[in-house]
Design brief:
- This protein is an alpha+beta fold.
- The chain has a domain of about 70 residues: Arc Repressor Mutant, subunit A (Orthogonal Bundle), CATH 1.10.10.
- The chain is built from 4 helices and 3 strands, in the order αβααββα.
- The protein has a 3-stranded antiparallel beta sheet with strand order 1-3-2.
- A hairpin with a 2-residue loop joins strand 2 and strand 3.
- The protein is elongated, with a radius of gyration of 21 Å.
């Protein structure tokens, strides 16, 4: 019989914790890439930022979905609904604007699964 433990494809013995199960103890904000990263950068730069500007000026058609993704990642994105806004000379109704709360980074308990 072979007394050596079996090694799986990840190069670990059974029951050994891998990178996927490690928790980030440094409490750094999650990396936001792609459109989410672009939206986060734009909100930081221009807050409050109208959803119409994200769509018209920066070609992000589903701005609300990207904001939802940022919130799911723990960012404190605040939203305000404006009853009427004049955008490019036209009155628009029920327009969202986005800004970052204070602190903007995720709350520390976000990483622990707390509330």
């Amino acid at each position: 019989m072979n007394a050596a433990p079996e090694i799986d494809n990840a190069g670990r013995a059974p029951g050994e914790v891998g990178k996927a199960n490690e928790q980030r103890l440094d409490h750094t904000p999650p990396a936001s890439t792609g459109q989410c990263g672009q939206v986060l950068h734009l909100i930081r730069q221009h807050q409050p930022l109208l959803s119409l500007r994200l769509t018209a000026d920066y070609a992000i058609p589903e701005a609300a979905a990207r904001v939802h993704d940022l919130r799911a990642a723990g960012w404190d994105v605040l939203m305000a609904i404006h009853p009427t806004v004049i955008f490019r000379g036209v009155e628009r109704r029920n327009v969202a604007s986005y800004s970052l709360g204070t602190p903007e980074r995720p709350r520390p308990s976000f990483f622990d699964g707390g509330v």
